[in-house]
Design brief:
This protein has 151 residues and is of the alpha/beta class. Helices cover 26% and strands 28% of the residues. The chain has a four-stranded mixed β-sheet with strand order 3-4-6-5. Strands 1-2 form a two-stranded parallel sheet. The structure holds S-adenosylmethionine. S-adenosylmethionine (SAM) binds next to strand 1.
Length: 151
């Protein structure tokens, strides 16, 4: 169950109201979670206002221009020294038994996801945007990636 510290708050952004409604049904009352119906590519949020941001399986849903804007917004709203965490698809090792099935599934259902097989996510960061540190690791034979950006 989600348990936030008393002084912590969590804002969850989704562009589809139905996704937020589904989440609202799963949250305990007084969870401290704010549900925000917004476009990740154009956040109505002041710069440097969050300690951390998480893009969880979002970028593969977006065409490149929206993906670039989402990354720029996420980097904008995190405070200097804070962290941006990105979790999403990644090109698996060719010997991964899921390589061929995932190629077919993603090509059919998630056409933008294959961009994440071909490019490093940092290639879509705003040009000349400096960050303090980037750590990347992959999981499940390369199928998923986790990138930790210290802003
Ligand atoms: C694969 S789902 C992941 C959902 C959620 N992160 C989770 O872990 O269950 C991707 C979500 O991104 C949302 N989404 C897609 N484009 C968006 C955008 N431009 N702004 C905000 N949310 C977006 C979709 O509505 C969907 O709920």
């Amino acid at each position: 169950m989600l348990q936030l510290n008393e002084d912590a708050c969590l804002d969850v952004v989704d562009i589809l109201p139905i996704q937020l409604e589904n989440l609202a049904r799963k949250l305990p009352t007084n969870s401290g979670v704010n549900l925000i119906n917004s476009d990740s590519a154009a956040l109505d949020v002041e710069s440097a206002s969050y300690d951390r941001a998480l893009l969880f399986f979002l970028l593969h849903e977006q065409p490149e221009d929206v993906r670039r804007d989402t990354l720029a917004e996420a980097l904008r709203v995190v405070k200097p020294g804070g962290q941006l965490i990105i979790v999403d698809y990644h090109r698996p090792h060719p010997l991964n038994p899921l390589f061929l099935p995932m190629t077919a599934i993603l090509a059919t259902l998630e056409p933008y996801a294959l961009d994440l097989w071909r490019h490093d996510i940092t290639e879509w960061f705003p040009r000349n945007r400096k960050v303090a540190n980037i750590e990347k690791r992959t999981m499940f034979g390369g199928l998923y990636q986790l990138i930790k950006v210290t802003v």
